[in-house]
Design a protein that fits this description.
The chain is mostly helical. The chain has one domain. Helices cover 73% and strands 0% of the residues. The protein is elongated, with a radius of gyration of 27 Å.
């Protein structure tokens, strides 16, 4: 996630990149051609260009609204995961009885939750291996998890099995187990929502046609403006093109909020926050530090 303080003009210019430079070059070519080599085809009416620009802005706005909705839903689901993880750690720590006998179990259950959120982060980012699992799970289980296609779901299933064992040993009564199980259901529902966003991208047309229409409009724009603006055409055309290219790029980047890019939901930071909270719950105070931005990007 790009931090607000990094929103500077030079960063935005670099964000657009070569398309903006090529547009500026094309604007200069059209202007020089009009001034020194007049041709009838360089005199397009202004009204059609205005209509095309209005239609394109509506199209881009519709696509960008849907893209941002996906990004915000992803962030909301991870916010719910943070709350559920904190509640889960608190209830596992205080509701499981037999304090002396179940101490190891309670400790392992909390560590499993840390492993779960890290595995979910890697799962959403399509990263085949999550190194953090080795710090919170037994080595034999880490090896076994490699055989599962959905590692976070496998971790959650094993957590439910451990809670069932605690109930059979008399450390957890059925009512308290149901209370903890409801949190597992909440986490499973949140994971399902995240997987839906990840596995159901916007239709291909939403990515292809807006970019195509923006580029075509940017090519036609200086031709439509040069008759009225002459030498000021590159300035006006590049400014309008910059806004359209930026809108197109932003909408494309927000479509997949879990792609491990600069504008995505900061999964590493969120999972590290969960890890810190749960580690402090079991006495590991100060062992882990929050994620710091890298070049004004929070990952």
């Amino acid at each position: 996630m790009v931090l607000p303080q990094s929103a500077r003009l030079h960063r935005m210019l670099g964000y657009i990149g070569w398309p903006l430079a090529l547009l500026f070059f094309w604007d200069i070519v059209v202007t020089l051609t009009y001034v020194y080599l007049p041709h009838p085809w360089l005199n397009l009416p202004v009204l059609p260009m205005s209509l095309l620009g209005s239609a394109l802005a509506l199209f881009l706005g519709f696509r960008n609204n849907n893209s941002y909705h996906r990004w915000w839903e992803g962030r909301t689901l991870w916010g719910a995961m943070v709350n559920a993880s904190r509640s889960y750690g608190r209830e596992v720590t205080h509701l499981i009885g037999g304090k002396a006998e179940s101490e190891r179990l309670r400790h392992d259950l909390v560590l499993r939750q840390i492993a779960y959120v890290h595995a979910l982060r890697c799962h959403l980012r399509n990263q085949p291996h999550c190194e953090e699992l080795e710090d919170f799970l037994r080595a034999e289980e880490v090896v076994q998890l490699k055989t599962f296609s959905n590692v976070p779901n496998a971790i959650l299933n094993r957590t439910a099995a451990m809670l069932s064992e605690a109930e059979m040993r008399g450390w957890l009564d059925p009512f308290k187990r149901v209370q903890i199980e409801s949190l597992l259901v909440d986490m499973s529902n949140a994971q399902g929502g995240m997987e839906r966003i990840k596995n159901t991208p916007l239709p291909r047309e939403y990515a292809y046609f807006p970019t195509l229409f923006v580029h075509v409009f940017c090519i036609l724009l200086p031709v439509g403006l040069v008759d009225s603006l002459t030498i000021f055409t590159p300035l006006a055309s590049t400014a309008v093109g910059f806004m359209l290219l930026a809108m197109d790029r932003i909408g494309a980047d927000l479509q997949d909020p879990f792609a491990n890019r600069a504008h995505d939901v900061p999964l590493t930071s969120i999972t590290r926050t969960i890890q810190i909270d749960l580690e402090q719950l079991i006495g590991r105070v100060g062992s882990t530090k929050p994620v710091q931005p890298v070049e004004n990007v929070l990952w």
